[in-house]
Amino acid sequence: MTKIGWIRHGSTSWNKEKRAQGKSDIPLDDEGKADARKLAERLQSDSWDILYSSPLKRAKETAEYIAEQLGLEIHVDPRLLEVDGGQIEGTTERERIERWGEGWRTLDLGIEDPSSILERSRNFIEEIIQKHEKMNIIVVSHGAFISHTLRELDAESINEEHMKNTSLSEVVLHEGKWKCELYNCVVHLEE
């Protein structure tokens, strides 16, 4: 049985300002670093074999805390980048409405198409399950990318809930079918 633990990076200043980050390379803020440490401690309670991360600072910094705690090497993979936000990157909802109007979501602002996101995701998953069959894999990535991926893997178990910073979602491949066994969990922040 192959298991993938999908982790959204820790918080950044842009998360707090509700700015679209996309592929902008924003580092963790102090809270994001503290939460990443708590997550890394939590992950010790399970057995993990390999660690992948998006190359963006906020994900890679989160992965560094995990790598240090679990003694794993980080494998950086550009397919794990956040959804490209095009022209909306760096803006808040209010700024988008001021700039493009209430219907900004219907405009072509260079935002990455869902089919492109899912193609990256499928390619990554196919490769890692071949390389790491029957292993427990941690993947540190980004909220929109993880949401699209999880809905593709197990639409029945996934809702539209916003992915929380440092959340852990686990999917298990059993007899050729993915099943989400844990979704958007942040119990390590509640202790």
Automatic annotation (TrEMBL):
GO cellular component: cytoplasm
UniProt-listed Pfam families: His_Phos_1
Signal sequence interval, chain numbering: none
Binding residues for substrate: 8-15, 58
Catalytic site positions: 9, 82
CDD domains: HP_PGM_like
Region (Disordered): 1-31
UniProt GO molecular function: phosphatase activity
Protein name in the entry: Histidine phosphatase family protein
